[in-house]
Write a structure and sequence with these properties.
Radius of gyration: 33 Å
InterPro entries: SHOCT
Pfam family, one: SHOCT
Distance between the termini: 96 Å
Number of strands: 0
Strand content: under 5%
Number of helices: 3
Structural class: mainly alpha
Protein name: SHOCT domain-containing protein
Keywords: Membrane, Transmembrane, Transmembrane helix
Length: 89
């Protein structure tokens, strides 16, 4: 009875091509790491390295909008007071 080998491997059977797999495996791993970092940078919404991403704008409450409109001069004092009382209650 000869040496015991698996059905899928015998000496010299796959030995000619398996060393060529390592460069492809290395390229695959490096590409995966590169794409993961690139994806995390895309999530920063344009912030550069070492910068915090900009905060999303929070919608103003109705009272804040009325105050801004009054400050811009879009509302008179009477309109502002009426709206402020309506929104406060």
């Amino acid at each position: 009875m000869g040496p015991m080998y698996s059905w899928w491997w015998k000496p010299g059977y796959y030995s000619w091509w398996w060393p060529s797999c390592f460069p492809f495996l290395l390229i695959f791993i490096l590409a995966f790491i590169f794409l993961m970092f690139r994806r995390s940078d895309a999530r920063n919404l344009g912030a550069g390295p070492g910068q915090t991403p900009p905060r999303p704008e929070v919608e103003d409450s109705a009272l804040e909008i009325v105050k801004k409109r009054y400050a811009r001069g879009d509302l008179t004092r009477e309109e502002f007071e009426t709206l402020r009382k309506d929104l406060s209650s």
